[in-house]
Amino acid sequence: MFIDSMFLMLVVPAILFAMWAQHRVTSSFRRYSEMPTSNGLTGADAARDVLAQSGVTGVTIERIEGHLTDHYDPRTSTIRLSESVYDKATVAAVGVAAHEAGHAIQHAHGYSPMHIRNAIIPVTNFGSKLAVPLVILGFVLGMTGLINLGIILFGAVVVFQLITLPVEFNASSRALATLDGYAMLTVPEVEGSKRVLSAAALTYVGALAVSLAQLIRLIAISRSR
Questions:
Q1: CA torsion, points 65, 70, 71, 77, in degrees to nearest 10?
Q2: Average pLDDT, stretch 67-95?
Q3: What pTM does this model have?
Q4: Which one from 34, 100, 168, 189 is the annotated catalytic residue?
Q5: Which of the residues 39, 59, 78, 201 has the least number of beta carbons within 10 Å of its own beta carbon?
Q6: pLDDT given at position 225
Q7: Is 90 helix (H, G, I), strand (E, B) or coil?
């Protein structure tokens, strides 16, 4: 009963918020994918121009399959843009591509939160897979050590998601400042890109909220034994 009440009070609202955030980014991207850039600027063009204006070189820009699968790979200094972004001359595509260029700029300029996040990725990958199974196994076997280990690993996932927030917000800030400052887009187009990126940022907030709610729940359950 205790577990159910904690789930309903903490986890369910967080999940609903995360679902709303995901819907918002999808609808925002769809809306501004229908707004063409007045100068014909494509996503790939925007990524190249943002990098150039920031003095960053040596970054490869590639097309990849999928929808909103865009990302920056710091291991190979590669920006990978999805089919709905790479060669699309829309406000949504330019915003997303400029955001990924923002990550490349962070990497080139030694932005500390990004390097910290990248450094703990192996731990968080390990923790995301084993944390909950370890907690469950600990309860089944009555081993407090396993429960605590699982909670610590899950806590590492929460820390990773927390560090991700400033990384994502900063990348968007860099992107929008460059798009606006160098007049790559008109003022209404910059506002459209901002709406897309703001919606995308909420998905990271939603993911953190779900994980934090789960962590609090796990800690509360472990203390109630």
A1: 60
A2: 97
A3: 0.92
A4: 100
A5: 39
A6: 66
A7: strand
